[in-house]
Amino acid sequence: MRYAFACIVLSLACWLLTPGTAFAQTRTVTGTVSSVNDNKTLQGSTVSVKGKNKTVVTDANGRFKIEAADNDVLVISFTGFDIMEIPVDKQTDINVQLSGMSAGLEEVVVIGYGTQKKSSVTGAVGKISSKGLNQIPVTRADLALQGKIAGVQIQTIDASAGADPRIQIRGAASINAGSSPLIVIDGYPVPTDLSSVDMNEVQSIEVLKDAASAAIYGSRGANGVILITTKSGSAGKTKISFNAYAGVSNVYKKIDFYTLDEWAAKVSAENNGVLSNQILTAKRFAVNTDPQDVIFRTGLSQNYQVSARGGNANGTKFFVAASAQKTKGVMITNNYDRFSIRANLDFKISSKFEAGINFNPSYAIRTVMPIKMHDALRTIPTFLPLYHNDTTSKYTGKPVGSIVHQRDFDPSRNTVYAAFGLPSLSASSDNNGLAQINGETRKFYELRMISGAYLKFNISNSLSFKSSVGGFVGLREGEIFRKSTAKRDRILDGAAASIATTFGQNTKSNTYDLLNENILTYKKKVGKSDFDALTGFTAQTTLYKNSDIQAGNFLTDEISTLNAGTITIANTTKEKNNLESFLFRINYAFNDKYLLSVSSRWDGSSRFGANKKWGYFPSFSAGWNISKEKFLQNSQLINDFKIRGSFGATGNNNIGNYRSFASAVPVAAILGNNITSGFDVNSYANTDLTWERTFSSNIGFDAGFYKKRVTLTMDYYNATTDKLLLFLPIPSITGYDGYWTNKGKVSNHGLEYELNVKAIDKKDFKWNVTTVGTTLKNKLVNFGGSEKLISVGDTKRPNYFLAQVGSPLVQFYGFQIDSAVSIRGSNYFPIGVQAERVFAKDQNKDGIIDDKDRVPLGTPYPKFIWGLTNEFTYKNFDVSFVLQGSHGAKIFNIDPNYLETQFSSTGANAYLAYSTTLRATTKFKSESSYNVQDASFIALRNLNIGYTFSKSVLKKMSITNLRIYCTTNNLWYKMAKNYTSYNPEGDTNEFGSDPLRFGYQRGAAPVARTIAFGINADF
Amino acid sequence: MKNKSIILLIQVMLFTAFSCKKTFLDITPDSVLTESTYFRNTAEVEGGVIACYDGLQATMQFEYKLTSLRDDDMTPYNLEGDWGALDGFYESSGNDFVRDFWARSYNVIARTNLVLKYIDNVTDATKKNTFQGEAKFIRGHMHFNLVRLYGDVPLITERIAYDANDNFKRISQADVYTQIISDLQDASTNLPATWAAASKGRLTKWAAKAMLAKVYLTRKNYAGAKTLIDEVIASGSYQLMPAYADVFSLSTELSNEVLYAVSYKAASNGEGQQFTYEYSRNGAVKGFKPQKEIINLIIATDLRKATSIGGTSSAPVSNKFIDATAPVRDAGNDLIIIRYSDVLLMKSEINANLNTTALGNPAAMTTQDSLDILAPWNQVRARAGLTAKKKNSYTGLTTFIEDLFTERRIEFCFENQRWYDLLRSKTPAEIVSIMNAHFLFNARTNTMQPYQTLMPIPQRDINLSNGILTQNPGY
What ipTM was predicted for this assembly? Predict the structure, then answer.
C-alpha cells in the first residue's frame, strides 16, 4: 500500500506545488513536515510566514522551501492536524511534527491499491493506527485488534501461545469456501495469516468491510480485506526506537475439583453415611492432587524490538527493524518464540522514477502440549499421588517416584494390585496425563519471507505507472515424537506393546507465491472536480508443496528423528493455484461534496471449471458531505456530516485447488503381502464450477459534533452470498459424500457503530472514549435444494448440528433436558461422577422420546459484539483500557462429560435403577442441551498505565522520548454463569474444516492473564 | 511523447496479460490424475481394480461394528455412544457407524462401477474378463452385505450422477439378490483359479463360487449351493490348516485355508487395519469382552479355545487378531471372509437340508450320506480336537442345524459371521429371544425388538434423497 500511497502523493504534488515569492532581506529556509503520530511526511501541508502574504506547500516528501527572516514565525497547517507556529530564529532546516486530531474525519485511509481522504470515502472502511497496539502483551498482531474495529470479530479459538485466532468480518458469508478475510500486507495479498507481523512495525491497519471497498480485490474480497501498512522511513534525522516488555502470565480461571474428603463427605451425606468400597480404598492412599497444578505454570513473555527510520532530502527513505519475542505459555511445554527482521527502503532515482524494496524474513518455533486439557485433567487422578510413594508402591509394584497411572490400581490390568483384592480405582486406561505430556514433543517451525520491489514511473503530473513484484515463501515444518513411555507403561504393558506406541512424524508444508502488479494511476483536479482513477493488471501464482513422513517402532526413546524408527508413511504432494486480474476504479468528487466511486475487477482463477474461469466484480458507491452545504456550514453543533451508500459484488474462491476435476488419486492395496498401487476417482467433475458471489449493500453516515469532539459512524450492512461454493452433501449411495457446486444462499446483516468522544481535552488532562459495536444476523436462505441436514459430531459422545433453511447456518441440535438422572444409591465413584444420561423432554408430546423430540439449542454465532476503549492522559501519566464483549453465542462444550468421568460404570449405569419405561425416556447428556453453554463474555483485554518522562529531563541523556508502562491482558474476564471450562471462545476444530460442525469445544486451552512492564524509547 | 509512452505502457500490459492467459489458468493437478484422462488402457483400468481392493480394505475393517458388535458373543468394555447403542439395540437412525458402513460400502460399489464403465478400454481379452470378474465379485459382495444388514437397499450397477434420484430408490431384497447372484455368477466364470504369488489375495473363481454358495444358502437354494461347494472342494485347491491358531497367524496369512480375505499390512503407508487395536484393551472402548456364553460354549479341551479367548478371566479378550508390534490402529492381520472350514460346514448344512430323510432315520444313513453330511463337519471338529459326530448323533434336521450353527459360532467367533448366521438361520422372533436371553443372562437391561434385525437406513441419506429413500419400520 505504501507504494500506491507514494504514487498518489507524487501526482498530487505536481499541481499542489506553487513557487513562493522572494523578499530581498530574507534567506531560504527549508524543512520537513511530518505527522507526530506516525512520522509520515505530510505532502500538501501549508507553510506560511505569519503576518506576511507568503505561502508554500510541501512536496511529496513533506519538504518545503520558503523565504523568511530570523524573526519571522512560520505557521504550518494541514487538514486534520493542529496548526503549529515555529519561530525561524537561526534555523536553516526546520523539522516540524504536527499533532493529528485523532479520529478526525480528515485522516487519510488506505484503500485497495491507493489511499483516500477519509472525508471522501464512500464505502465501509475501518481503520486503526498502531498507537498502543504494540503494548498489548499478546503473541500476535491480530490478537491486539480485539474490540477495536466495528464488525471485525477476532476470536481466540485457541488460547495457547502462538495459536491462530479466527477472524471474521461481518459474519460467516460462506459454507465451504471459508470465511477468513484476505490479508494484504503493504499491497501484497499474501497467502498466509498475520502471525509473522510484528505490531511494532505496523503503521496502520485498515479493514475493507463492504463490497464497494473490497470489490477491488474481486474474487477474494467477499470475506472482507485486512490491509496492513508497515512503517516507512521519512526524511530528516534518523530516529532510533527501542521497545520492550516482559511479563508473567497465569491461567485466568481454574476449575474447582472435589478433593477425596469433600467427595466422601458428599457421598456420606447423600448415601446415608455409606461410603463406597472404592472411596474407602482410595482413602488408604490419602493424597489429593489437583491436575491443574500439574499442567499449569507461570508463563513468561518477552518482546524486544529495535528500529531505525530516516532518510535524506533526495528521497531515499528507510525503515529497518529487528524484533524478538519469547513466550513461555501457561501450560507445560507450550512455548512460542519468534524472530523477525524488516527492511523497507524507498529511493528516488530521478524526477520521473522511484523505486523501493522491502524485505521481511521471520522465524517462529512453537511447541504445543501433545494432549488437550480434558485428556490431561481426566487422566491425572485427583485422589492419588502424582508420583508413587512407599504406600502406593507396595500396592502396585511400581517403583517409588514413577508417575502414577490410574490403571496401576486396576486389578484386571495389574496383577500386583489384584493380589490385594481391592476394587479398581481406575476410570481411565490411559497413562497419567503428565506421562503423556512428558513423553511426547510436538514442535512446529516456520520460516517466512515476505518481500517486494516496485518501480514507479511518473509520466506526468497527473499520471503515473507502477509495476511491482512480490514474493512470499513460507516453509512450515512439524515434528512429532512420542516415546514408548507416553501411552503405555513397560511394567504394566510390556516392552513390545510400549514400543508399538512410539511414533514420529515430520510434516512440511511449503508455500511459494509470486505476484506481479502493474497499475496506472491518474489524478487530476479540474475546477471543482476531483478525479482519481486507476487501472491495472495483476497476476499471482502460488505453489504448495507438502510432505508427510511417519515412523513407528522406535527401539529407543533417545532419538527423535525418524531414522531411528520404521517408516510407516511417506508422502509428498504438490498443488498450484494461479490468478490473473484486470482492475479499474474511478473516484470522483465534486466540490468535496458529492462523491462517487465505481470499481471493477475481472478475475480469472485456475481453481474453477474449464467453462467458468472468469468472474466480474463491480461496485458502486456514492456519498454526500451534507455538512459542506450552506445550511450546515455554520452549524455549531454539526461540524461534519456525510451520508454514503454502496452496492457491489465480491467473490470467494477459497475452496482449495482442483475442485472442478474428478480426481483420480493414488491409492494402494495389499496384494501378495505387498503394496500395489492403483487410482481411485474420489470426486465428481464439475466443469461449470465457478465463483461464489456476495452482493452486499451498505448504508451509513460519518458525523462530527461539537468541533469534532464527538464523532459517530454508523453503518447498516446487508450481504447475500449466492451460488455458494458448496460441497453439496449428497446421498452416500452415489459412492461420495458431496459434490462441489455453486448452490445455496446465505445472508448476513447487521448494524455497526463507532463512537468517539473527546470527553476532556485540556492541556494537562485528556480523556478519550471510543466504542464500537456490531449486531450480526446470519441466515441460511437456500441449501442447494435440501431443507436441512443433521450432522453428527463425536460417535462416542454423540451430538448433533443442524443446518436448516431459514435459520442460522449452524445450530446445535438435540434434546431439552427434562430432569437429571440420579446416581443416588450407586457407589458414587470415581470422584465427581455424575450420570451419563438425562431424562429428555417429550417435545412433540407423543409419549415417546425419539429423534423427533430434538430441537435447535442455540447457535455458535454471537448476536452482538462490541469494544470499548478509554484513554486518559494526565500530565506525564497515561492510562488506557480496552474492554471487549460478545453476546448471544453458544458453545457445545463436551468437557464436563470427561471431567465427571461419567463413563465409569457408575455414571453409565445410573439410569438402570429406573423402570424400563422411564429408561426409554433417557438420552445421553451429549445429545441434550446439557453441553450447550453460553459463550458470552466481557473481557478487559488490555489495561495500560504509562509514564512519559519530561523532555527537559531526557535532553541531557540525548533521548528524545522515554515512556515506561505496565500493561495487562485479560486482567478481568467475565464468563457466563453456565460456562464451565477455560475459554468461552475456544472452538477446538474437532471436525477438521467441516463448517457445518462448528462451535464444538473439547479440552480448549485456558485463557491466560498477563501482566507486563515495558519501555518505549526513541533516540 | 507523453501520449506515446502511455499507449506503449498499455500495450505492454495487455500483451503481458493475454500472452500468458491460455496456459496460466488452465493448469491440471500435479499430484493426482483425473477421470477424464485416466482408464485409457489395460494398465490404467487395472489401477481402478486395485482401487476396488483398496476400498474393500477401507470398508471391511469396520464390518465388525454392525455384526460382531451386534451379536451375543462380544460386547465393548465401555458402552459408550454409538458403540453401546449398537451393542445394546438402542441405536437411532443417526448412528454414525450405521451411516459409515453404508457409505463405505457404496463407495466400493462406485469403484467397481467405474472399472466396468471403462472395461472396453482393456485390450487384453483375458485381463478384461478378470477385471470384470473382480469388479462384479466385489460389487456383489457389497450388495450382499447391504441387503443382509439393511433389507431393501438401492441397487447401483453403473456410475451414477450425483443427483440421480431414481437410483436412490430401495429395491426389493429379491431383486437385489437376483443382481448379486448374477454378479457372482459372472465372477465365477471370468475369474482365474489361481494367482501368481505377487498377486496373491486377488479374487479367484473358487472364492466366487463359495461366496455365491453363501448367497444361495441365505436364499435357501440348497441345490444351487451344492453344485458350487462340490466344485470348490473338488478343485483340491484348499485344505484346513493343521493348527487352528495358524489360520490367524501373521506369518501364515493367505494360507490354503483362505478362499477370500481382505489383506492388511502393518506400518505400510496406511495399509494396516484398525480393528486389532479396537479389540485390544487400549482401543476406543477399551476392547471387546468375549461374553460368558461363548466362553462357556468352547469347552476346555477345544483346541480353538486359546486362540479365540485370551486375556484374564476378569478381563477376557480375543486372541484372534493380535499383531504385537503394529503401530496404533495400523495392524497387519487379514480379515478372512471365507475360509475352507466355512466351505466344509456349508457342505454339511447343504447336504443335511437336501437329505432330511437320512437325518430323520440315522439307522438308514448310507456311507455316502454320512460322507456328505457328517464328514465335512467332522473334519472341522477333528482339527479342534473334538470327537466326531456320528450317524446316530441326530434324529432330525432341526437339532442337527442347531448344533451345526453352534459349531459355526465357535469356529468363526469374532469373525463377523455370527450375526449373519443368526439372520439367515433364525426368524426375527427367534433372534429377539436369543438376544434378550443374552441380555438377561448378563444382567443387562437392554432389549431387542423384532424390527431390529434390520439396521436403520442412515438418516443423513434419507434427508438428502428428496423423499425417495425410506426408513425401515420401527426406526
Answer: 0.93
